[in-house]
Amino acid sequence: MVHETFINKVAQGDTVELEAELYRQNPWWEKPFEERSIPRSGYVDSIEKGLANREIIFLTGLKRIGKTTIMKQLVGRLLAKGVKPADVFFINLDSFPLMGHSIHALVEKYRETHKKAAADFFYLLLDEVASRDGFEKELKSLFDNDNVKMK
Length: 151
Description:
The chain is mainly alpha-helical. It is built from 5 helices and 3 strands; from the N terminus they run H-H-H-E-H-E-H-E. It has one domain. Helix 2 packs across helix 3. It is globular, with a radius of gyration of 16 Å. The relative contact order is 0.15.
């Protein structure tokens, strides 16, 4: 009984820590979002045009050239156009608190947190996705089975 109680408390703590990390990475869920970086309008415009298609959009490039910044500017653009903050889910996949969780588990936690059904549409922005082994299979599964726009 003590062992079971301990496991439940650890699992609950992990859930609380996970949710806190998701809110930390998605501050627009709680307050107005401000992106104060140098505008990369050309890139954001190009990505925004691709959002009308069903395909997954990959943003590739060398480290430290601004891919995360461009994604955050896209978030700002989506919010400015009236997308609900809870419909934009950004995940930095090399964040230490998220390392033990699959992309699917993170999406399920997001759905649980925001009370979203599998059919509910949202934008999913994955940063550092290549840091995950098998990410291709997870993205294909999400693409095939969920109503989500991935970038």
